[in-house]
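sorry for the late reply, my laptop died twice this morning and i had to redo everyting from scratch. anyway the thing you sent over, i finally got around to it. pasting the sequence first so we're on the same page, its 431 residues, then the predicted structure underneath. double check i copied it right bc i was rushing
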Amino acid sequence: MSSSLHLRAPIMRLGTMGVLWALRAIGLMIAPTCVLACLAPLYASAPQEPSEPLTLDAAISRALAANPDLAAARLARSIDAAGLAVAAERPNPDVSIEVEKEAPRQAFAVSWPLELGGKRGKRIAVGRAALGATEADLRGLVLQMRNDVRRRYSDAVVADAKLGVLRELRDVAERATATAQTRFERGDAPRLEVLQAALALDAADTETSAAAGVVGAARAKLNALLALPLESTQPLTTSMDASGEIVTSAMVARARAASTELALADRRIDEQRAKASLARALRVPDATPTATLTHGAEPEFTYGWRAGLSITLPVLTTHQAGVVVEDARLAQLAAQREAMLQRVVGDVTAASALAEAQRQASVRYHDVIVPRAKQVEEMAQDSYRLGQTGLPALLQALQASRDVRLRALDAVAQFQSGVADLERAVGAPLP
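ok and here's the structure:
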């Protein structure tokens, strides 16, 4: 009774308006809670949209379309396009007005420089060659982006596969722990086996947790490259199994025909040839014709005219030194291109041999070694479950199976890395 009086007393002191304001405040606090409580089951029961699978080709396409670094590199096109427009400009005419005290008292002159020797056309050729070099450079950046996506995609796939192997072995260790406990309770095994099985389970838990962190890091790197949310977990569906045989001669022929590095060198040479041609055109002097209208020479004439032509004589400055400089640069670029070709052929030959060896190792692991390891693992589990062998033999078999399966995935990762190195050496996309 005293508590009810205690609660009513403050309300009586508030008065009628105070009570209304208090009830309104309580309603404002309770209403959102009630709304959320009503909507919570709807959100809980709403089906979650499954993440769409992400193939390697789809990942490459997205990176080429959405990567900010590549988008910034594409802006170089507009710079070279503007430079081409500048190269196509013509010189402006000069207009002069003279007022003199002597006759004729006024003169109105117009002079218009004329570029001789095809200077404007050769400037345009230089601008077009520069634009071609930029396009070739951009193709190289696109190839590098493809290469980066291939590497990070394969890293994420292999990391996820390793996590699957460790989770599977963790489940096996958990079943072995349960079996050891059952055998101990029946008196068929010492407590040592229970402790050993628990220790193996703890180690498997630790390795699984570490592998999950590696998967998260690999997916974050891939998502960042694709401009996706870093926490995105789209399933990666492209298999990383070894493909067909890698033939060195075919890879060398592809590099000679489609290497972006060699193509960029060719475009640089074309640009330098255009610059050398422009340097020769600069040796031709320009002419500046002038037309003048005169006025105020009475009584001889009221209006008169005169025409003139000025040409700079190439006596001291002949621009021959500029031609020598551009020719020397052209010779240097040609020599660098030949050296580059030899290096590319060597790199492609070495990368092809290494990738083929890694492919064969990956195929042997996939076709022979891993199936045998799984068979040994299954036999060891059955033997321990039936009491034919002890726990040490099972743990040894599990450890051997784990090592073999992880080495198989390492072989897959090395092969994919070798393919990425080969693609970079060839300088052209590989299937």
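Residues 1-50 have pLDDT under 50 and may be disordered.
thats about all i looked at so far, will dig more tmrw
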